[in-house]
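Tutorial handout. Part one gives the primary structure; part two gives the three-dimensional structure as tokens.
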Amino acid sequence: MQPVTLRTERLVLSVPELGDADDVVAYANDPDVIASTPVPVPYGHAEARYWISDVVGAGWAADTRYEFGIRRADDLRLLGTVGLFAFADGAAEIGYAMHPDGRGSGIMTEAAERVLQWAFAGPPEGLGLVRVQWRAIATNTASASVAQRLGLRFEGRTRSSVLHRGSRHDQLLAAALHDDDRSAPMVWPTS
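Part two.
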């Protein structure tokens, strides 16, 4: 598939490009991103260029990963990314990461909501997916908060199922189906 650009009132979601490498390095080295995602440590320009070209670019070309750079419409600096991957049987997984400069203003929720709309829309406007799931280590409360605001339904907690940075972690799982009413906030268990 050719990369698409999605928009909201205040955001532009477009494929990350090699010119975004500095911004990718900046958010990939954020301690919160390192603590919650499997980014390589240290993460430099070589890793950013590889990710942009060989993961993102190749993913769009092979229809295996659709990654969007998150940018304010009035400032096209890359603040983070949101993407769909692990496609199987009409389903995919959503993941996201954000630079601290973009946190706290609803940007990630807005961007991920727009990607979900595209994922669930029928062709040619979207992918026509039936299910989009989210997973994160249980200590990643910021990601869980976004998933809750998106109206994803909590599906479970797998105990000690993820090895991350040398330690075992519980993992949370939530999902949305194309016909779910996501307008009402979902209450998730606290432990």
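Part three, for discussion. The helical segments are 21-28, 31-36, 45-62, 107-120, 141-149. DSSP finds five helices and eight strands in the chain.
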